[in-house]
Each structure stands twice: as C-alpha cells, then as structure tokens.
Design brief:
The complex is a heterodimer of chains A (310) and B (196). Chain A contains eleven helices and 13 strands. With 310 residues, chain A is an alpha+beta fold. In chain A, the strands form two sheets. In chain A, strands 1, 4, 5, 8, 9, 10, 12 and 13 form an eight-stranded mixed sheet that branches. In chain A, strands 3-2-11-6-7 form a five-stranded mixed sheet. The radius of gyration of chain A is 25 Å and the shape is globular. Chain B is an all-alpha fold and 196 residues long. In chain B, 80% of the residues lie in helices and 0% in strands. Chain B has helices spanning 2-22, 30-59, 68-90, 95-104, 106-123, 127-133, 135-142, 144-161, 167-181, 185-191. Chain B is globular. Classes of the chains: A alpha+beta (310), B mainly alpha (196). Chains A and B meet through loops of A and helix 4 of B.
Amino acid sequence: MLIKTSTELSDSAVTPEAIYLQRRQFLQLGIAATASLLAPNIFAAANPFASATKSPLSTTEDLTPLDSVTSYNNFYEFGVEKTDPAQNAHTLITTPWTINVEGEVEKPGMISMDEILKNYPLEERIYRLRCVEGWSMVIPWLGFPLSHLLKAFKPNSRAKYVQFISVDRPEQMIGQKQKVFEFPYQEGLRIDEAMHPLTLLSVGLYGKVLPNQNGAPIRLVVPWKYGFKSIKSIVTIRLVEKQPLTSWQKAVPNEYGFYSNVNPEVDHPRWSQKKERRIGEFFKRKTLMFNGYADQVAALYNGMDLRKDY
Amino acid sequence: MFKPTLFVLCLFPIVWLLWRESMGQLGANPIEAMIRELGLWALRLLLLTLCVTPIRQLLQWHALIRVRRMLGLYCFFYAVSHVVSYLWLDQSFDVGDIINDIIKRPFITVGFLSFVLLIPLAITSSNRMIQRLGGKQWRQLHRLVYLIGILSVLHFWWMAESKSRLAEPWLYVVALAILLAMRIPLTRLFLKPPAR
C-alpha cells in the first residue's frame, strides 16, 4: 500500500516569490472592491440625490408625470421635434463634466460635477415651467441656488450680467451636427436675476440624476421666465459687464428679447400668451404674470416697460 | 363593393386616432397631436378627391366618379373635426381669443379661410343642389377646390415653417402641384390616351 507523503510541491515553490507575495494585495483588492460595491448602500445618507431637502419655495400643484417631462422637450441640440431629445440625447457623454466660471470674477476657474455635488447640498424645488410656445409643466427639480455657486467665484463690481453657454459637441449631438440652429446655445441673466433665490442650477428631477434630454448633467431653471431661458448642459458661466446677446435674440431679434419674462399681457408677435396648456390637462388655463412668481420677482423690474423689455 | 370599402377605409383614421387617444398613446400633448392629425387627414382627403379626375382620364376608369363626392365630404368631415377641436379644445370657444388668433397668425388665417371656402362646396354636394344650381354653375363654384387646396397646403407649410420642419409639407406641395398641373388644358392634351 502506497501512502502519499508530503512530497508534492507547495504553492510557494512553484509560484515566483514576487507574485506569491502579492496574494495579500489581491485579497486587499477584493475587500476594497466588495466595499465599494456595498458603499452606495452603506453611505446612502451621503448620496446627494437621496438626501435632498424639500424647499418651502415649491408649489403644491399636481406634478406633470415623469414620462411627459422626459418625452416632450425642446432641446434643438438633439432635433427640433419635441420627441427628438428623448430619442437622441443618449449620445451625449456627461461624465466627466466641468463648468468654467470666468470673466468678471476674483477667482476664475473650473469646477467639476463631483465638486459641485460635494459642495452644494441639493434641494427639491417644485416649479412651474412655462414654454414660450404656450404649454406648461410642474416639475420637481433637484438643485441649488445659482447664487451659491456664483458667490464662491467672487463676482467683482463690473459683473452686471451673467452669460451661460451650453456644450458644443456636434459629434455627440445630432441636432448640432445638422446645424438646425446656431450653436453653442447661449443665454443670459442680469446679475440680480442670477442671484435671486428662485434661480436654480438643477442636476436632477423626480429624485434622480437629470436625464440627458432635460439638460444633463447641469442646467439652469428660472421659473418666472419662458423655458428657453433655462439653458441646458452648461459648460461656461461668464460674468460680464455688458448685456450679452442670447441665441434667440440673435436668431429672431424681433420675437425674443433678453428678459423673456412670462407675461400674459405681452403677446409673442405670432401668437397670444394669455393662455397655456398644462401638459395632461384637457383645456387651457390662464397664464399668470411672471408665471405666478410675481410676489417674489416683480420688484426686480420696477420702473421697466415690460412691453419694450420683453 | 368598392364604394362601401372606401367608405369604411376613410373612417379608419379617426377611429384609430380616438383609439390611441383613449389608450394614452398620443404622447405628452395628445390634444395638439389630435388637432394636427385631423388637419393632416383633411388635407390628404382633399388631395385624394383631386386625384379622381386625372386618374379617371388616364385609366379610362369612369366608375371612379361615383366616389368623388364621398371623398370630398370626408375631406369636409375631417376639416370640421379639425376646426371644431381647435375651437373647442384649444380655444375653449372663446370668441375674442379666436378672432385674435385668426387675425394674428397667418397660418391660421389661411387655414380658416380655406375651411370657410369648403363650406359652400359641402352644402352644394347633394343631387338636388346640383340640379338647382345647374351643371355649369355648380362646376364653376366647385373650382374653388383648387384655391382651397393651395390655401390648405400653405396653412400646413406656414405651421411647419416656424421650426423648419418642411420635409412633410414639401410632399404636399409637390402632390398638389402635380394634381393642378394635370388640369391645365395643355397638359391634358399630352395625357390624353390615344384615340381608338
């Protein structure tokens, strides 16, 4: 009878020592990988989207259903039809992403999305959105006041206006490739409008990361102005002394002004602005002055002729 | 069987539209989708009606004349549905707003004009009215359909132009141009089948 003795080679004998010694690193790597998989659960409280606070500035109106919010969009970078963005926006790569803050600021520089999410706690703000075309929605945005970000870059005394520029990547945005409009899209606010507590930088909606068709990864939301003022997929914020030209002012100057406040008394040259269709409702409803935010923002425009400064 | 089949086929677009509406398949803005689709079918049926005479002449298919009135009335039916849904669902029958809208928006001005012109044609479509008017006058009145065709295509063109979505309107421009050209006496001379 043959009894096997321990003459077989041990693992350490056949494996080069250098690799053999890495077994601990391998184990450590495994532990780290497991931990990182578990992390989102363990550190759920640190997920800025889950820990967003509810804002007293929210409306209590019925929300527009999520599938309407994400399937009926004006985002010409992905085509001019309302259904185009939902179909085409997946091609935009939103990570990594940085915003360049420049111009009349003491500390110009870049800020990444990671830093933004780390530095600025998110709030849920339920706002009305009124499109210049005559329809509206009620959307639960996740975001933070634009003023918080602007203050960190310290605007100087010459910063009278804020210019915003959207991403310019024709290879990722089919509407840009087809040149359906002059890109990159540009918008602007007066500094007091930009610093207003209602003015939001949004990174999400309905409790989740912003879908691409809604302007991922970061967009402006100015609820008392027509929707096109709320520029999407921002890459540059520039503080300037002179009133900047916006994309729509350039494209059709007699139809779109710099301010573009929601105003039922001032018609669009081609249609009335008295009423709007709230998406999901059967009949149109009356449009409210400053989209119902007159109490908060009307004072910004004291002494201005809103027919002239439309 | 041709005429009853066509009758049922012409009902299909509105049945299908109402079905999708009830199933919530018309997207986020179903009212807008419905108004637009009804208008599009009115235009399509107008062009189909205008196809009858050229096809009859080219193919010597004279029985086709029997469906012309039906197609014309279906065009009117879709036009009425289109206009009523605009007046009701879009404007809530607010007369002041409607008048302003018709004056302010050129595409609605021409669309509305084309609908108004369609009314006398629908009214005079019965045998009795044809007899009362007399064939010659009836034919003269019904030449309005060419103007209606031009106004309707213009209505569609101007509606789509604001976002330069002109691919579809182009199809209708070309179709209408061909159908009108076939009515020019000189063109008809060329299109006449050889005498037997």
